[in-house]
């Protein structure tokens, strides 16, 4: 049966066109139940092949004892997807109406439902009710689309209940909806219907499902709070305000230091600036990452930013839940700071008036022990608080029957809503991950928190691996066509110890004309991973290999990543090679790109390669090649430095792990050798030359990588700080900055230069992938490398961007001709670049979080005293970097942080933090100064001259600190590194190691625990 709809619409140019849509209705659409005689008869009548059986096991519950299947409506799948993903839910009918509506509402949830449908074990059957003659319903006059869809769902449920009467055994169909009006109409139509909560409460075998039910459209009224946020504006009001310019939109970023301070980028006075959003009322229930609509506050309320450390759990702990916005307002001090002539410029401030797009996701964290009431079992739900691992996320109220069992466990919680009369958002329990402190659990938390795909590769992905498996070999008859045979060359690889995914190798040999032939050989991953198959799609989704301290999450299956594509020694491997002819001064004469076959003669570690460099007697071909490469690398590096390339630094450390790869037993700083620089120079050279080649052939659709020049304002604080050391930083160009960094020397403290380079790194912009057709050539510039064009080509085993570049280069040299059309779609490449940038950022953050995790594990049961440097000064404390461990921590400027004093001086730029603090904050000099009496109270002063000496904390100050870890689950809400000041001594702030050790032992004795405290001798 064919139904035809015709209507007219107006085009963008004003033309009126007639649109005709045809809708086919059939009476032979399979219901999905294998025992259905009606469907079997229809298939035989129409000579259709029987469809695969999917709905095989109708369930029973305590409330609906007949065998039945369930039909969820759109809102159930949208809001209760965590429940539906539980293994208890099988044999579910997903209507076409629901699936199409869900696709328009939420792509992420739609994809999760599609995964359930794709899993044969779950038996989620899609029924095309919109094309079933008996189920299709026309939209009535004055009926809303939502009401029409609800009616279509009820019609399909009614059809199923009639249709399945002849099944053996007979099965019913139950509608599950949380829409009260939809339930009322279903009851009137004599359909079995339940809300999600009613239905799961009758699934006696799965009591945990009750905790997983999301609270939807319920006001979270807590009579004790008496709190109210401003009402969010309706979407129509937000749209009108954005259009008129009364509002603006942006992505909210919450400060890592202050949970009540957010920021967005917006145009202010025709210039992109940071706009601050400060305080609970102005943040108005927005969380980190939300896309929000904002309204500027009057210019009279614009403020001068003053850094302050303000952590929600610390404020909660001190004030027993009563946190006042005055704490946040101290971070934006008007009266004390703005009065000074030399004070910084005020920044714009704004308030959130509505939420455009929520960034709610499942959060990992722990239950607040103090909020749990002892009930002695799971008999009733209680309201408890959940603290996310991410400090930027507010604590969340959930209801659970498992509260006592969840204390000390890592769990996942999802936010359901945030009522205007509730101080905190409400959410629901999703699942338990494991115990706090368990290494496997904490590693899973790192991956989940940073959205790193880490599930095992699916059978569909693995099906595209070579059928020979590990027995696959390079065959001349199959693989040499179009390739250059380089197996006679003395190629070698140089990698970190333990590296198994070797994706690059090198060679160098003299030519008869006196020049040198240099080759960079990269694993030819594109030979194995063809465009748009399941393996390619999975690699694109993962984007990059993620390296954690104790494990690696591969982008490709290990058969490829660590075997067939890994350029191991003494085996033939497929490669993509860049071959240069170079003069002895490293000038490039010519370059050739070719697919190749190589046979590496040696797989060396950096140390092994360095030993060959240092051995003056070694003259074998591989060693000779390494020495030639090293000489060229130094010249290439000198050329880059001359052009203005930057040498920056990061406080990276490497953990030594026990044999089981779990317990960190020691820490060492990463040491860079000549061989590190050797490999780096030739990888950079290959990336630059390949970028030139692919851009020449694909000017509109090359995947390139750029590093934007940072704005001068990024360096202002650093320039002001180093000026006190007699150092000047010129950031006008990368060359000027590089020269400034080379001259930034303090003879008495060599580490200061590295510290300045670390802080300079933090002034930089993020390097990003982009499609060449979306920007003009001047914007291609890579600031850090001082090169006009750059891409990633040298690591296709671990980066999807490199795999795409391999495909572009293969077409550019005429090797591939089959998939050119896929490589010239600017829109798709722009979308791909965005995905790769996101995955790259998440991988970096996951790696840092893994280091932080193992730092906490290393410091567990330890209390160590170390030297540190001040790298940031804030109003109520300062941040330090501990060089030995490469870690950072906050030092509060008071012994026990409390909410800040509300009063600020109106006549000076120096403002007291709080009455109990011995420090005052000098905004002009960005420093903390301890009062003379406090500085003299150490008990070591003998005369008046010493008593008059003040303690000053400013950028680059050296100090001594004590470091330990506070675990979540006890008094702490989140696991965190605790740093306390030892020297310089300030009474009320500084502590002694022996006093802390003694206090810890007393606490352990009282708790009946035998903890261990490792004491480090105090440095002289």
From TrEMBL:
Which UniProt keywords are listed?
Cytoplasm, Endonuclease, Exonuclease, Exosome, Hydrolase, Nuclease, Nucleus, RNA-binding, rRNA processing
Composition bias type Basic and acidic residues, residue spans: 1000-1009
Q: A biological process (GO) annotation for this entry?
A: rRNA processing
The record ties this protein, via CDD domains, to: PIN_Rrp44-like (cd09862)
Keyword Electron transport assigned: no
InterPro entries, per the entry: Dis3_CSD2, NA-bd_OB-fold, PIN-like_dom_sf, PIN_dom, RNase_II/R, RNase_II/R_CS, RNR_Ribonuclease, Rrp44_CSD1
Region of interest (Disordered), residue spans: 1000-1020
A GO cellular component annotated for this chain's UniProt record is: nucleolus
Which cofactor(s) does the record list?
Mg(2+)
An MF annotation (GO) of this entry: RNA binding
Pfam families this protein is in?
OB_Dis3, PIN_4, RNB, Rrp44_CSD1, Rrp44_S1
Question: Which ranges carry the PIN domain?
Answer: 68-184
Subcellular localization(s) per the UniProt record: Cytoplasm; Nucleus, Nucleolus
- Where in this chain does the record put each RNB domain? 483-815
State the similarity comment: Belongs to the RNR ribonuclease family.
What's the protein called, per UniProt? Ribosomal RNA-processing protein 44
What's the source species for this entry? Powellomyces hirtus
């Amino acid at each position: 049966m064919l139904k035809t709809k015709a209507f007219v619409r107006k085009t963008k140019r004003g033309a009126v066109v007639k649109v005709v849509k045809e809708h086919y209705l059939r009476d032979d659409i399979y219901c999905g139940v294998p025992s259905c005689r009606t469907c079997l008869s229809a298939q035989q009548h129409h000579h259709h092949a029987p469809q695969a059986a999917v709905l095989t096991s109708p369930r029973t519950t305590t409330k609906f004892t007949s065998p039945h299947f369930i039909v969820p409506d759109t809102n159930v799948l949208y809001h209760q997807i965590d429940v539906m993903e539980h293994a208890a839910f099988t044999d579910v009918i997903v209507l076409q109406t629901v699936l199409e509506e869900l696709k328009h509402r939420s792509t992420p949830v739609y994809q999760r439902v599609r995964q359930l449908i794709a899993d044969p074990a779950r038996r989620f059957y899609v029924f095309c009710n919109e094309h079933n003659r008996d189920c299709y319903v026309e939209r009535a006059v004055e009926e809303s689309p939502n009401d029409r869809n609800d009616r279509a769902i009820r019609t399909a449920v009614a059809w199923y209940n009639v249709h399945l009467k002849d099944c053996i055994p007979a099965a019913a169909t139950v509608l599950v909806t949380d829409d009260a009006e939809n339930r009322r109409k279903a009851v009137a139509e004599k359909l079995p219907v339940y809300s999600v909560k009613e239905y799961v409460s009758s699934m006696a075998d799965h009591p945990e499902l009750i905790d997983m039910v999301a609270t939807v459209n319920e006001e979270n009224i807590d009579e004790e709070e008496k709190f109210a946020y401003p009402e969010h504006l309706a979407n129509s009001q937000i749209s009108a305000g954005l259009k008129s310019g009364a509002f603006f939109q942006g992505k909210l970023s919450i400060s890592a230091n202050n949970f009540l301070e957010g920021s967005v980028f917006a145009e202010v006075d025709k210039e992109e600036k940071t706009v601050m959003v400060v305080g609970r009322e102005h943040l108005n229930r927005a969380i980190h990452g939300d896309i929000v609509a904002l309204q500027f506050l009057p210019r009279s309320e614009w403020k001068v930013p003053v850094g302050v450390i303000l952590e929600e759990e610390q404020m909660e702990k001190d004030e027993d839940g009563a946190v006042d916005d005055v704490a946040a307002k101290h971070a934006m001090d008007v009266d004390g700071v703005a009065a000074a002539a030399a004070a910084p410029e005020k920044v714009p401030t704004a308030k959130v008036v509505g939420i455009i797009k929520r960034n709610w996701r499942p959060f990992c964290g722990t239950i607040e022990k103090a909020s749990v009431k002892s009930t002695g079992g799971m008999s009733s739900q209680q309201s408890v608080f959940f603290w996310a691992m991410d400090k930027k996320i507010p604590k969340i109220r959930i209801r659970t029957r498992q509260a006592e069992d969840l204390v000390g466990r890592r769990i996942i919680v999802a936010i359901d809503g945030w009522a205007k009369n509730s101080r905190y958002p409400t959410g629901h329990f999703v699942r338990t991950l494991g115990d706090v402190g368990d290494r496997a659990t904490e590693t899973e938390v790192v991956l989940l928190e940073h959205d790193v795909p880490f599930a095992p590769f699916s059978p569909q992905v693995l099906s595209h691996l070579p059928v020979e498996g590990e027995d696959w070999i390079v065959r001349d008859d199959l693989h040499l066509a179009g390739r250059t045979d380089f197996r006679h060359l003395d190629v070698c690889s140089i990698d970190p110890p333990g590296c198994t995914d070797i994706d690059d190798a090198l060679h160098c040999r003299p030519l008869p004309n006196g020049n040198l032939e240099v080759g960079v050989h990269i694993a030819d991953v594109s030979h194995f991973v063809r465009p748009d198959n399941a393996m390619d799609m999975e690699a694109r989704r993962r984007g990059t290999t993620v390296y954690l301290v104790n494990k690696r999450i591969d982008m490709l299956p290990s058969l490829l990543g660590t075997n067939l594509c890994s350029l191991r020694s003494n085996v033939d491997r497929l490669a993509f090679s860049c071959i240069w002819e170079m003069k002895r001064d490293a000038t490039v004469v010519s370059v050739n790109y070719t697919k190749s076959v190589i046979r590496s003669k040696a797989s060396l570690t950096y140390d092994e390669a360095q030993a060959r460099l240092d051995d003056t007697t070694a003259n074998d071909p591989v060693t000779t090649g390494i020495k030639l490469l090293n000489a060229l690398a130094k010249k290439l590096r000198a050329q880059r430095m001359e052009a203005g390339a930057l040498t920056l630094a990061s406080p990276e450390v490497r953990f030594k792990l026990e044999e089981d790869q779990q317990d960190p037993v020691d820490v060492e700083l990463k040491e860079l050798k000549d061989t590190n620089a050797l490999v780096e120079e030739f990888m950079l050279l290959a990336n630059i030359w390949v970028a030139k080649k692919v851009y020449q052939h694909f000017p509109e659709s090359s995947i390139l990588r750029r590093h934007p020049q940072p704005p001068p304002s990024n360096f202002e604080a650093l320039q002001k700080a180093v000026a006190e050391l007699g150092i000047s930083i010129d950031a006008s160009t990368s060359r000027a900055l590089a020269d400034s960094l080379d001259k930034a020397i303090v003879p008495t403290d060599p580490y200061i230069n590295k510290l300045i380079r670390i802080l300079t790194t933090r002034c930089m912009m993020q390097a990003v992938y982009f499609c060449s057709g979306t920007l003009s050539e001047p914007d291609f510039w890579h600031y850090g490398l001082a090169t006009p064009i750059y891409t990633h080509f040298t690591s296709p085993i671990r980066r999807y961007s490199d795999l795409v570049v391999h495909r572009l280069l293969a077409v550019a040299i005429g090797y591939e001709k089959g998939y050119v059309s896929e490589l010239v779609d600017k829109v798709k490449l722009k979308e791909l670049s965005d995905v790769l940038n996101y995955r790259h950022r998440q991988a970096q953050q996951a790696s840092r979080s893994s280091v932080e995790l193992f730092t906490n594990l290393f410091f567990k049961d330890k209390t160590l005293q170390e030297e540190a440097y001040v790298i940031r000064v804030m109003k109520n404390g300062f941040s330090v970097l501990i060089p030995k461990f490469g870690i950072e921590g906050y030092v509060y400027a008071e012994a026990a942080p409390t909410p800040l004093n509300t009063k600020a001086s109106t006549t000076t730029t120096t403002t007291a933090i709080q009455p109990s603090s011995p420090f005052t904050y000098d905004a002009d000099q960005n420093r903390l100064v301890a009062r003379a009496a406090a500085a003299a109270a150490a008990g070591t002063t003998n005369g008046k001259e010493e008593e008059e000496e003040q303690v000053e904390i400013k950028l680059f100050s050296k100090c001594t600190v004590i470091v330990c870890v506070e675990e979540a689950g006890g008094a702490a809400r989140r696991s965190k590194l605790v740093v306390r000041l030892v020297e310089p001594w300030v009474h009320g702030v500084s502590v002694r190691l022996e006093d802390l050790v003694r206090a810890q032992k007393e606490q352990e004795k009282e708790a009946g625990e035998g903890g261990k405290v490792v004491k480090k001798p105090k440095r002289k």
